[in-house]
Amino acid sequence: MELLIQLFLGFLGIYTVIGVLFALYFFFKGAFALDPLIEESKWTVRLLLIPGAIGLWPLLLFKIINKSRTSL
Amino acid sequence: MGLDYQTVLWNSHKKKYDLWIAIGVFLYLLTFIGITILTNPETTAETLIIRAFGTLAIALLHIVLLIGPLSRLNSRFLPLLYNRRHLGVSMFLAALIHGAFSIIQFHTLGNTNAFYALFTSNLEYDSLTNFPFQVLGFFALIILFLMAATSHDFWLKNLSPKIWKGLHMMVYVAYAFVLLHVFLGALQQQPSLWSISILSIGFIVIASLHLKAALQESKIDKQTAIKVEDGWEFVCTVDEIPEDRAKIFIVQKERIAIFKYENKLSAISNVCKHQGGPLGEGKVIDGCVTCPWHGYQYLPANGQSPPPFTEKIATYRLKKIANEIYVHPEGLAEGTAIEPIAL
Amino acid sequence: MNTRQRKKHKIIWLLLLVIVPILLVFTIVNLKEPLFTHNNALGVVKGEAKQIMLENETFTVLLDPKNTDGNLQIFLKKSLESPAPLVYAVSKDMPKDSYIGTLTAKGKYDFKINSTTTSVKIYDAIKKEELLNIPLSWD
């Protein structure tokens, strides 16, 4: 059980670290790729989106990649 | 709806709403701290903060869960629905303070990683009544975090309404986790008939209101056409629809709204693209159907939001025989223009 | 809401209405401590406690063995890390330790225990660990 817990917490930790890095990308570039309307919005909106970017980064990455494929 | 995203679309109603939240939270904390100091003056500051914010979060969660069914049962509660997301975020922040202080108080004073200690201080994962209650609180907090973090129109649009709504329906899972967190935690330590009663009554009230609202909506959904002519279903007579308002009808198990405006009739989907609000309960303002929940607008003749907005909803064909209105049950693609019926 | 969302709500609520009450009833039925503690468990009892069972910087535990119903006094001199440690009377005659009260804050606590009690245990229910076990001498 302890091993399972260690693995789970390890996974959570890695997920969060990647999430933070992704959130940085999302703040500077990713949000614009996902939704052009962000360009008309203030930077404080993107700041507000950071927690969501950390929490849901796999889904957002998938959507950004999909969007860039369809626009090619 | 907007041309760009704002952090918060402030207006006087939202400011008033948030002021009431702040006053309520402040009064609650003051009362809780005051009573604790009077009855248990030796309580440490950390224990006080943990209990105050924990109970505050539970109280706010109950209020949040009541708003949905209340506003379906009585339109007087609709103003509470309007800015419910701010209440939800406040509730998450209270829960976060409770969780953070709990982890610090109970798991950081040793030499083990605090989160590891949280998961391993009680290993009875195979027990029902001894299940590690703190782990339940942890997962409830994760759910509430994801909900609070996505409480913005950007996420509603870009996660897709389906995924966003699925995520936010996790509030019910969080609610179950929170109840068990309390029943397996604080109440095991200090059994209190008062606390058990409050939480049990809270669950019964929330469940009953949801059930009542569901039964009410089910009755509406079970309505079928009184008569059908050549595949067209009879809705009502022209006079039954007030000016600038709608009659809600069911076709193929979905609700539609038939609006009367400027001596014309048009039929559109009843479900707002924003957060699923009941368009048929709204009004026509300046030629646009306006959602009663958040003010999203659609042109009744084509189901499109007025430019430069891009939301679209399905439209339906109507015909008038004498004074009777008939609708074709097959909806048209979202944003399809259809000539209104002239009266 | 559309039909699909209403159906999802119906399923979730059916699950909640079945699962939550069952689990809550289980937890209440299996409460380790009684919901109603004896009125005098934490009340002041007449007669003086005489013998010191334990004295340290956190606790002073006194017992008056001549009182046939026992008279146990626990003085909590310092706040403990655990917000509400539980007090149990351990007896060879009883298969399970008897809960006699909770130490909610610094102060004096009086308990009525009988002479079959061999020790008093102070327990942290959150960390599920015994904080202290105080053997009692009835001589």
Which keywords apply here?
heterotrimer, A: 72 residues, 85% helix, C: 139 residues, alpha+beta, Immunoglobulin-like
How are the SSEs placed, and which strands pair?
The complex is a heterotrimer of chains A (72), B (343) and C (139).
Chain A: H1 2-34, H2 43-55, H3 57-71
Chain B: H1 12-39, H2 45-73, H3 78-82, H4 84-107, H5 114-120, H6 133-149, H7 153-158, H8 161-168, H9 171-184, H10 186-189, H11 193-221, E1 228-229, E2 232-237, E3 246-251, E4 254-261, E5 264-269, E6 283-285, E7 288-290, E8 297-298, E9 315-316, E10 318-321, E11 324-327, E12 341-342
Antiparallel strand pairs in B: 1-2, 2-11, 3-4, 4-5, 5-9, 5-12, 6-7, 7-8, 10-11
Chain C: H1 3-29, E1 51-55, E2 59-63, E3 72-76, E4 86-91, E5 98-102, E6 107-111, E7 117-124, E8 129-135
Antiparallel strand pairs in C: 1-2, 2-3, 3-6, 4-5, 4-7, 7-8
How does this structure look, described?
The complex is a heterotrimer of chains A (72), B (343) and C (139). Chain A has 72 residues and is mainly α. Chain A is 85% helix and 0% strand. The longest helix of chain A is centred in the N-terminal third of the chain and has 33 residues, at 2-34. The longest helix of chain B has 29 residues, at 45-73. Chain B has 2 domains: 12-220, no CATH class; 228-342, Rieske Iron-sulfur Protein. In chain B, helix 2 packs antiparallel against helix 4 (84-107), helix 2 (45-73) packs parallel to helix 11 (193-221) and helix 4 (84-107) crosses helix 5 (114-120). In chain B, strands 3, 4, 5, 9 and 12 form a 5-stranded antiparallel sheet that branches. Chain B has a 4-stranded antiparallel sheet with strand order 1-2-11-10, with no helix packed on it. In chain B, strands 6-7-8 form a 3-stranded antiparallel sheet, with no helix packed on it. Chain B starts with 11 loop residues before the first helix and ends with a strand. With 139 residues, chain C is an alpha+beta fold. Chains in contact: A-B, B-C. Chains B and C meet through helix 9, helix 10 and helix 11 of B and helix 1 of C.
